[in-house]
Design a protein that fits this description.
CATH superfamily of the largest domain: Jelly Rolls
Strand content: 15-25%
Number of helices: 17
Strand order of the largest sheet: 4-3-2-1-5
Radius of gyration: 39 Å
Number of strands: 16
Subcellular location: Cell inner membrane; Cell membrane
InterPro entries: cNMP-bd_dom, cNMP-bd_dom_sf, LSM_dom_sf, MS_channel_C, MscS_archaea/bacteria_type, MscS_beta-dom_sf, MscS_channel_2nd, MscS_channel_C_sf
CATH class of the largest domain: Mainly Beta
Pfam family, one: MS_channel_3rd
Number of domains: 4
Helix content: 40-55%
Structural class: alpha+beta
Distance between the termini: 117 Å
Subunit structure: Homoheptamer.
Membrane topology: Multi-pass membrane protein
């Protein structure tokens, strides 16, 4: 009687402990389960001998039933402890990466074996008759649950084939694309790029085309098509596209990007650009950057995307047009038209070959540079270590802080491709500030505005560290040795109407 009471207390304790310890660490659950199983084993041995071949010697039907309940509870507790051991070892290391389905199947087989053992050794029921009865029940349930069972068995097939694992990025016909978040008995849950959860039944996933974008590597290849005027030579287009690829930091150098002529038309041809990125997360940003850079290169080179009726497209940039684009930068927004034209004529042209340095970190030549064509790399040296800050291309300008203050450049600029650069020096700007000194305020505001532009992050870093905030205007006055001028009403009017300064006395060219 004492062993029966102890067994009942242990069974109640087991049921309570397993429910309360779900949030505890695995090792603590395993230790507690082992202790409870050892205690229940001692009680079973005293009552019926071995739980594998129990001998029920109690008198009275109620006592025999209780002994059977105790032995059945021992088998269920042993099965539960085995499942916990597997979940803490095999499931976590291997099966967890493949989803819940495989783990649940193995746990179900363990519980099924324990139940069949209880039916055979404890309840002494004929297994064959039970299996025949369960077969009839299975047929009835199968007819009622055809759709659910199709998902379950399709899930088993998907689990065996394993076209994807938890955490893989997949594309399913539909289309659905995202990261596999969970694989359960009935469906696959995919977290899309928009943050939604798409639930795809296994029966649908088994019939769909699946692309695993994480295997064998997460690299993603894609292409974009661009039109260009038929009058532009294909080799010129390929050169400009290669410059645009160099200016797209998320596009990988290997595998090497390529450009091909894919369609010829009367007015425009079509080109396809193939490239690769490190992962799917970089794809849309890389596409956008590439198209922006292609458009920028075409505009800087005077290339039209398509021939206009009655006109054509130029394949070489116009030098005068490059100078005008140079002086259209924010720094010169507030000067008069004749002053802009004068600076346009004074701008110097420089050509660089790959490997040539436009200027080096620490140089103080005080010049502003405008990249008319080509691609250059910006590098900075700290101690003995040199690192790349990025690349600049046609349409970028650099060195405005050095031009206005004489501050040393904070980086080195090196040509990656044959490049053409326009240069404006201090001696070109000094006469303009001498005749209209209030323009210093406009230059200060324009320089700050140019450095704050998002798409000039790399170019602005050349001089961003050299002038502390609030000291730029004073540095401009000191560098050009112009006395302090307080901006009065005439200065504000000149900012609003720059053309009003057109009749100012000419300075020295």
């Amino acid at each position: 009687m004492t062993s029966q009471i102890a067994a009942g207390l242990l069974i109640c304790l087991c049921a309570t402990a397993w429910r309360m310890m779900r949030s505890l660490p695995a090792w603590l659950r395993l230790a507690t389960g082992a202790v409870l199983l050892a205690g229940l084993t001692a009680a079973v041995v005293q009552m019926v001998g071995s739980p594998l071949q129990p001998v029920f010697v109690a008198t009275g039907a109620a006592a025999v039933v209780w002994e059977q309940v105790v032995v059945a509870a021992w088998w269920l507790l042993a099965a539960r402890l085995l499942v916990e051991v597997l979940r803490s070892t095999l499931f976590n290391r291997g099966l967890a990466a493949k989803g819940r389905l495989q783990g649940d199947l193995l746990a179900g087989l363990i519980y099924l074996a324990a139940v069949l053992t209880v039916v055979d050794t404890v309840l002494d029921l004929p297994i064959r008759a039970l299996l025949a009865t369960s077969g009839v029940i299975a047929i009835v349930l199968g007819l009622a649950l055809q759709s659910t069972l199709a998902d379950v068995f399709s899930g088993i097939a998907v689990g065996i084939e394993r076209p994807f694992n938890i955490g893989d990025r997949v594309w399913l016909e539909g289309p659905i694309e995202g990261v596999v978040d969970q694989v359960n008995w009935r469906s696959v849950r995919i977290r899309t790029d928009g943050g939604d959860i798409a639930t795809v039944p296994h029966s649908v996933a088994a019939k769909s085309r699946v692309i695993n974008r994480s295997v064998p590597t997460p690299q993603r290849s894609d292409s974009v098509r661009i039109p260009c005027a038929a009058s532009v030579p294909p080799e010129r287009v390929a050169e400009l596209v290669r410059h645009a690829l160099l200016l797209s930091p998320r596009i990988l150098a290997q595998p090497q990007p390529a450009v091909a002529l894919v369609r010829i038309g009367r007015r425009s041809n079509e080109y396809e650009i193939g490239f690769a990125v490190a992962s799917s997360n970089d794809l849309w940003h890389a596409k956008s950057t590439l198209l922006e850079q292609v458009l920028r290169q075409f505009r800087s080179a005077g290339v039209e995307t398509a021939d206009r009726p009655g006109g054509g497209a130029t394949s070489e940039p116009d030098p005068a047009s490059g100078s005008r684009r140079f002086l259209a930068i924010p720094l010169f927004h507030d000067i008069a038209d004749d002053q802009r034209e004068r600076l346009c004529r004074q701008a110097l042209s420089r050509s660089l070959e790959p490997g040539d340095a436009l200027f080096r970190q620490g140089d103080t030549e005080g010049s502003l540079f405008f990249v008319a064509s080509g691609v250059m790399e910006v590098t900075r040296t700290v101690g003995a270590r040199s690192s790349s800050l990025g690349r600049i291309g046609a349409g970028d300008y650099i060195g405005e802080i050095g031009l206005l203050t004489g501050a040393p450049h904070a980086a080195t600029i090196t040509a990656l491709t044959p490049s053409d650069v326009l240069e404006l020096r201090k001696e070109h700007l000094a006469p303009l500030l001498a005749e209209t000194p209030h323009l210093m305020h406009a230059f200060e505001a324009s320089a700050r505005r140019g450095q704050a532009l998002f798409d000039r992050r790399v170019a602005a870093s050349v001089g961003a560290e050299t002038v502390p905030p609030g000291q730029l205007l004073a540095r401009i006055r000191d560098y050009f040795r112009v006395h302090h001028v307080r901006p009065g009403p005439d200065a504000h009017a000149a900012r609003r109407h720059p053309a009003a300064q057109a009749n100012s006395p000419p300075g020295g060219d």
